Amino acid sequence: MFQASERSGHGRGLLTAGVLAGLMLGASLIATGASAGECPAGQTKPNAREAADVGHDGTTDTVIATLDVDKEQGIKGRNFRMRRLVIEPGGTVPWHSHAERPAIIYIVEGTVEEYASNCAAPIVHKAGDVTAETKDISHWWKNTGDETVVLISADLPKM
């Protein structure tokens, strides 16, 4: 079942088309080689960074849509979820793991820094970048700039 904040037939159709267009854009960016910033050379190390005590400050996290992938595709115990995150200057997304929740992030606006468990230096992501968040990643994000950052996140959280 597709769920979204807009439930009218016409609005839901437009939202569905928008979600599909966004997914196709993300897939095409990955396929054409557009990717997010990477860990700087020589900085990739296992357990390079410990969990940080960072809050969910200055960040708005809005679920745009969900899809029950058990009913849709037989993938048990998962939802497909799309979110829009807005990170104000100085705002943070707290330390979290992707051990059980893979995700793909598209940076729509701004520049944001990622502090990942496998990189000793901050990773800079800019508008237009796409990054995959895999089971091997734990991290937190911070907007260190003067402009608002907007991200679109698509993930498969457990139900």
Automatic annotation (TrEMBL):
<dbReference type="InterPro" id="IPR011051">
    <property type="entry name" value="RmlC_Cupin_sf"/>
</dbReference>
<protein>
    <recommendedName>
        <fullName>Cupin type-2 domain-containing protein</fullName>
    </recommendedName>
</protein>
<dbReference type="InterPro" id="IPR013096">
    <property type="entry name" value="Cupin_2"/>
</dbReference>
<feature type="domain" description="Cupin type-2">
    <location>
        <begin position="85"/>
        <end position="153"/>
    </location>
</feature>
<dbReference type="InterPro" id="IPR014710">
    <property type="entry name" value="RmlC-like_jellyroll"/>
</dbReference>
<dbReference type="Pfam" id="PF07883">
    <property type="entry name" value="Cupin_2"/>
</dbReference>
